[in-house]
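Need a sequence for this fold. Nothing fancy.
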């Protein structure tokens, strides 16, 4: 998708944040990480607002200059109170360098997809010529991208990585659920974006601004209330939650997406075998493990 430009729309209706019984807009202290696991952030147990209001969805369609309205992209974002147990979640998406350590130690297949397999999986968006930019060769990632998020990983790849990392760090690592992911991305007050309620394209990598992935620590202003980076922008992220019988939910948005897509409430589904240049992941763990 193409960028909608420098859209700065303020004054989002107060209906997004008030009258919902969670105390309106809140501030959260940045956690120092989980005990013994400095790479992860602690998210406390409790309820939060998941999904979007009609007002938020209308705001998203306007940000997209009405491009996505005809497809009804945001109509499955059911607004509801959800309670989670406490959990820990990676501060950053898993990077190429981290994934290479996993590949080197376990001999797990490197991120790759052939032209034929890419064509078969559909939802192409980009030609295979663009995919070549992200392909690993000789069990190593493209030069200069060690701190970019890893892509071209299937759901099984991500599960295998998290299990491997859990053995090293002691807590049981896994993919987050879509509810855990969304809570970590927006806090408990129902905010639209990780940083608040007004769109700011300078806080993330989206809209073809860079034309590819960027280092995972590049946008500190886009951090979530808990201190996580890149929860929107850069890459979509796999979750452990089923979308339907054939797909799993992915959350966030990627480096080529429209602003309305780049909200914590946004979700869509992909087949678990999918390998795409727009999809990465991060791991979670149970806080009491």
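Here you go.
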């Amino acid at each position: 998708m193409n960028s909608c430009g420098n859209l700065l729309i303020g004054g989002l209706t107060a209906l997004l944040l008030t009258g919902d019984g969670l105390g309106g807009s809140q501030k959260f202290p940045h956690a120092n990480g989980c005990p013994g696991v400095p790479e992860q952030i602690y998210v406390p147990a409790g309820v939060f607002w998941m999904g979007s209001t009609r007002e938020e969805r209308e705001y998203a369609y306007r940000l997209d200059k009405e491009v996505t309205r005809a497809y009804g992209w945001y109509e499955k974002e059911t607004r509801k109170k959800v309670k989670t147990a406490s959990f820990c979640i990676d501060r950053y998406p898993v990077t190429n360098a981290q994934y290479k350590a996993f590949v080197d130690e376990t001999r797990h297949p490197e991120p790759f997809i052939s032209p034929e397999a890419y064509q078969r999986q559909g939802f192409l968006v980009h030609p295979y010529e663009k995919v070549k930019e992200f392909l690993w060769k000789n069990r190593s990632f493209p030069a200069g991208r060690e701190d970019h998020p890893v892509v071209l990983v299937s759901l099984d790849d991500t599960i295998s990585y998290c299990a491997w990392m859990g053995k090293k760090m002691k807590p049981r690592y896994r993919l987050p659920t879509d509810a855990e992911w969304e809570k970590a991305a927006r806090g408990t007050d129902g905010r639209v974006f990780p940083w608040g309620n007004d769109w700011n394209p300078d806080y993330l990598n989206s809209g073809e601004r860079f034309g590819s992935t960027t280092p995972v620590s590049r946008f500190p202003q886009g951090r979530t209330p808990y201190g996580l980076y890149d929860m929107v922008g850069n890459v979509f992220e796999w979750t452990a939650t089923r979308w339907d019988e054939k797909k799993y939910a992915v959350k966030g948005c990627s480096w080529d997406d429209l602003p309305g897509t780049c909200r914590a409430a946004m979700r869509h589904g992909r087949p678990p075998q999918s390998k795409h240049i727009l999809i990465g992941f991060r791991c979670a763990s149970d806080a009491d493990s």
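For context: The mean pLDDT is 88.
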